[in-house]
Design a protein that fits this description.
Layout lengths: L1 H11 L2 H12 L2 H20 L6 H7 L2 H9 L9 H32 L2 H5 L5 E6 L3 H6 L6 E5 L2 E8 L6 H21 L2 E7 L4 E3 L5 E12 L5 E12 L5 E7 L4 E3 L2 E18 L2 E9 L3 E3 L6 E10 L5 E9 L2 E3 L5 E2 L4 E4 L2 E5 L3 E10 L3 H20 L3 E7 L5 E7 L3 H21 L1
Antiparallel strand pairs: 1-21, 2-3, 3-20, 4-19, 5-6, 6-7, 7-8, 9-10, 10-11, 10-18, 10-19, 12-13, 13-14, 14-15, 14-16, 17-18, 20-21
Helix pairs in contact: 3-6, 4-5, 6-9, 9-10
């Protein structure tokens, strides 16, 4: 017990030792794996729990206690919460420290692989003695221009290749850090909103100086009537500069306009509402499901298109709710068939046949490029680690004038041994034929 207490006191009296132990723990594989598991769980929670909703919506979906828990721990905004940011920062720090602690060893390993005296000191993967001429063996194994040197007083041929393979895992880890960091920063700064409308409508993109015009919207169907694709033709305009860009958005193929990605996410039903006075139309507007139309000539009066669905008799109908100064008005009827005319003498509200509208999700991820760079580095690191195998070949001249040829491969030893034996036997076969 006294020894433990004295050891603890000795550690506490040396802050640098404490810092080293903390850094060593953070840089450990165990700590990184724990963080990865926790981050993965957090991402799952962020995907399952609807993000950015109000307390009432969580209470209606779950319970009051669960809703309070969600808000208290910021599960309604996981990817921007302080604890998620802290997890990502710790994960990146852990992998970076792990990589930094390995840099010196990797540099030495890379240098030693090219140093005949140090490389030869290691045990070979394959060896053959009594070789009359060693240089053809080098050529057959694609080790060209071997270095002619002297090691411990003996004539030596030496060659190495693929030293970049030592750095495969290191590059892969850097790529993973960039992917995690880019994803986290992208989620924390992500701009996302929705725009929906019918062909011909121009809608503002909230939170930006842009507006989008839906030039056309088509639904491609198969011969059996199955929906195969939604396609929107769009024009985005900068209202400040007047500059415009035109593009097409379909499912899995977003339009990229003015730095924003416009995803085709869904479609729904809309109705053209035409208002007439004494039989003369004077106002017309497309109303999508979930939208409210305020009628200027009747202050405080509005109508809300709640849905397009079968009515009580099973016939397709619009469910329209009427409001006056925010209060629901009971007009005795809520379902109206397409083509119906609502009489509000001297005014009449005519409802058209259903119009299909497009729902677009507008996103801008300022750090997507960082994820792309990380993905490229990760792929390169995996390629280096799996396919760029460091190999060394050396031959030492013995006292009888023959050579002892040795080869070392850091990975894929059985394959290297097979190639080595073929190279040596190929030399012997040629000599025999002579």
């Amino acid at each position: 017990m006294r020894q433990r207490v004295s050891a603890l006191c000795r550690i506490l009296s040396n802050p640098m030792e404490i810092l080293k132990k903390i850094c060593k723990f953070i840089a450990s594989m165990k700590f990184a794996i724990i963080l990865l598991i926790v981050v993965a769980i957090a991402c799952v929670v962020g995907s399952l729990v609807p993000q950015g909703e109000q307390f009432a919506q969580y209470r209606n979906s779950y319970s009051e206690r669960t809703a309070a828990f969600i808000l208290a721990f910021h599960l309604d905004d996981v990817f921007r919460s302080w604890w998620f940011i802290a997890l990502i920062a710790l994960l990146c720090l852990s992998v970076l420290l792990c990589n930094l602690t390995r840099v010196k060893a990797l540099i030495l390993q890379t240098k030693h692989a090219a140093d005949p005296a140090k490389a030869i000191a290691e045990a070979p993967t394959a060896s053959a003695s009594g070789v009359v001429d060693a240089e053809p063996v080098f050529r057959r194994l694609h080790f060209y221009r071997p270095l002619k040197t002297t090691v411990e007083g003996k004539e030596t041929l030496f060659a190495c290749r693929n030293r970049l393979g030592f750095w495969g895992a290191w590059v892969c880890h850097i790529g993973i850090v960039l992917i995690v960091l880019g994803y986290a920063l992208g989620q924390m700064t992500l701009f996302s909103t929705e725009v929906y409308g019918t062909p011909g409508q121009t809608k503002p993109i909230e939170g930006t100086p842009y507006e989008v015009t839906i030039e056309d919207f088509q639904i491609d169907r198969s011969e059996t009537g199955f929906i195969e694709q939604y396609v929107s033709t769009l024009t985005v305009k900068n209202t400040e500069t007047g500059e415009t860009q035109r593009g097409t958005s379909s499912v899995n193929h977003p339009a990229v306009l003015e730095g924003y990605k416009l995803y085709q996410t869904a479609s729904g039903d809309a109705v053209c509402v035409t208002i007439a006075e004494d039989g003369v139309p004077f106002e017309s507007a497309d109303l999508c499901v979930g939208e409210e139309l305020t009628i200027d000539f009747l202050p405080g009066f509005s109508l809300f298109l709640n849905s397009y669905e079968p009515d009580h008799n099973g016939a397709p109908a619009y469910q329209i709710l009427f409001f006056y100064n925010g209060q629901h008005m009971d007009v005795g009827k809520t379902y109206f068939a397409p083509g119906a005319v609502i009489d509000m003498n001297p005014y009449a509200i005519a409802l058209s046949e259903p119009i299909e509208y497009t729902l677009l999700r507008v996103k801008k991820d300022s750090f997507a490029w960082l994820v792309g760079v990380g993905a490229v580095l990760t792929a390169l690191g995996l390629f280096f680690a799996l396919y760029v195998v460091p190999e060394t070949l050396w031959a030492v001249k013995d006292g009888d004038g023959t050579w002892t040829v040795n080869g070392k491969s850091k990975k894929l030893a059985p394959l290297f041994i097979e190639q080595f034996e073929k190279a040596v036997s190929g030399r012997k076969g040629k000599e025999a034929s002579k």
